[in-house]
Amino acid sequence: MKRPCVHCWSSDGELQRKMAAHAVSVLVTGANRGLGLEMVKQMVEASHPMRKLFACCRDPDGPRAEALQTLAKKHPNVIAVVRLDATDLCSIKQCAQQVGSVVGNGGLNLLINNAGMLAKGTLQETSTEDMQNTFNTNVMGPMNIIKEFLPHLRAAAKASGTPGMSSSKAAVVSISSFLASLEIVKQSYDSFPAISYRISKAGLNMLTVCAAEELKKDEILFSLLHPGWVRTDMGGDEGDIDAPESVQGMLSVMASLTEKQNGAFLDYKGKSLPW
Ligand code: NDP
Question: What does pTM read for this prediction?
Answer without folding.
Answer: 0.94
